[in-house]
Design brief:
Blueprint (H helix, E strand, L loop, with lengths): L3 H11 L20 E5 L2 E4 L4 E4 L15 H13 L8 H13 L5 E5 L2 H16 L3 E6 L11 E2 L7 E2 L6 H4 L2 E5 L3 H11 L3 E6 L15 H11 L3 E5 L12 H6 L5 E5 L9 E5 L1 H4 L18 H16 L2 H23 L4 E3 L4 E5 L32 H5 L3 H14 L2 E2 L8 E2 L6 H14 L1
């Protein structure tokens, strides 16, 4: 494919932005392609190349790039009324009512401007509510570019910053655990239980290739936090209103956290974030409580209008059935392809999320394996080989995925997230034809 204009744009970008990008995940080698426009389930780059898009803005675009007429009309009406006011609007109430009706844990909600701001606010709220300082996060979990969670460390020990510019004192209050290790969680609570404000986790390790929870693991975290007076916080920035439909991942797994962070889908492609949970906790935010939280753009009427109309559309139409069916078809097809061409690799994901992890080992006999993505089924022959945590994904062939496979798929006309770790997303705009074309591309690239 000719990408000369993208190359020239990147050359210009290098002179005015660090690394030529505004988010490091876009910094692919030798240079990124620049998108000119979206079209349904596709993007068209600056050189006119067309790709089936499974990045979908890294998750927000549940309906694809072409918004249905009701959503477009509502956005145009809001624009005509003015972009923002510095005062409350009705749409803030309406979206809050929608979320509290459908998400099991959310009795009250505070809107913010991004997923990072949501998780930052949730950590502050948990500390303010409990009067404790320490938090527990999962190794490989991502909770935005905030000081308390940009950390690294050995299991159950004091962490250290994973980025320059973060004082060590921030990381000292954060404990990391391997996802799916219930015994490690119990040991941490035995040692630090009365110091822990919250456990912050994605219900699916979405920023670590969509590793699913082992049966009972999320329940163990729920029990431990309840027993020790800590809060369980689900970061559903990625999974919210994508996994489990309107009830989110917590509804699908049947675990109700104390707090939930949301973003992405609830903004319909516009910047947004939110913290929701039990009313007695969320009311600790100012002005009703003493945990300070504020923002000029919080509850922005354009973002909330897009999110509300998108969710209303999803509630009235077959959006979740459609994307889940396509997801099962794609993951099943990938499982069949890998059985023939790369049986050591692992398909993960559920509903409208998916990924192929280039794991290095696998069983010889695949009879009875999970058919549409790993479900951490102990009876599956792949169970002992399927990734359970960040360490397992790190041991996969991450360089092969990023340097060889990703560009090969791009040449096949399929746009995937740019590394082994980020999940991929199906939208309502994708069709069965897109899925079949994608499976053929996987065959060619593998």
């Amino acid at each position: 494919m000719n990408r000369e204009r993208s190359r020239n744009l990147y050359d210009r970008a290098l002179s005015v932005t660090p690394g030529g990008v505004n988010s490091p995940v876009r910094a692919v080698r030798p240079y990124p392609f620049f998108v000119e426009r979206g079209d349904g389930a596709h993007v068209i780059d600056a050189d006119g190349n067309r790709y089936i898009d499974y990045v979908m803005g890294y998750g927000p675009l549940l309906l694809g790039h072409d918004l249905p007429q009701p959503v477009q009309s509502a956005l145009q009406s809001q624009l005509a009324d003015g972009p923002m006011y510095g005062a409350p609007t009705e749409v803030e109430v309406e979206l809050a009512e929608f979320v509290t009706r459908h998400v099991p844990s959310v009795e009250m909600i505070r809107f913010v401007n991004s997923g990072t701001e949501a998780t930052t606010s949730a950590v502050r709220l948990a500390r303010g509510y409990t009067g404790r300082d320490k938090i527990v996060v999962m190794q490989g979990g991502y909770h935005g570019a905030q000081e308390s969670t940009l950390v690294q460390g050995k299991t159950g020990t004091t962490s250290e910053p994973s980025s320059n510019g973060i004082p060590a004192s921030f990381a000292e209050e954060t404990i990391t655990l391997p996802f799916n290790d219930a015994e490690a969680a119990r040991e941490v609570f035995e040692k630090h239980g009365d110091e822990i404000a919250c456990v912050l986790t994605e219900p699916i390790l979405g920023n670590c290739a969509s590793v699913p929870p082992v049966d009972g693991y999320l329940g163990t975290l729920r029990e431990l936090t309840e027993d020790h007076g800590s809060l369980l916080v689900f970061d559903e920035v990625m999974t919210g209103f994508r996994i489990g439909g309107l009830g989110c991942a917590q509804g699908k797994f049947g675990i109700t956290p104390d707090l939930t962070t949301l973003a992405k889908v609830i903004g319909g492609g516009f910047p947004v974030g939110a913290v929701g949970g039990r009313a007695e906790i969320v009311e600790q935010f100012t002005p009703t409580g003493n945990v300070f939280q504020a923002g000029t753009y919080s509850g922005h009427p354009l973002s909330l209008t897009a999110g509300l109309e998108l969710l209303r559309y999803a509630a009235k139409n077959d959006v979740y059935d459609h994307v889940a069916a396509l997801g099962d078809r794609l993951r099943s097809g990938l499982t069949d392809i890998l059985e023939d061409r790369a049986p050591e690799y692992t398909v993960v994901g559920m509903d409208s999320m998916f990924k192929v992890i280039f794991t290095r080992d696998g069983p010889r006999d695949l009879e009875g394996q999970c058919e549409a993505g790993c479900r951490q089924n102990p009876d599956c022959p792949r169970f002992d080989y399927c990734p359970k945590d960040k360490g397992d994904v790190n041991r996969a062939e991450t360089e092969r995925w990023e340097r060889l496979f990703w560009p090969a798929m791009l040449d096949e006309g399929v746009f995937l997230t740019a590394n082994q770790f980020e999940s991929q997303f199906i939208s309502y705009a994708h069709t069965e034809e897109d899925i079949e074309e994608t499976l053929e591309a996987y065959k060619g690239a593998l």
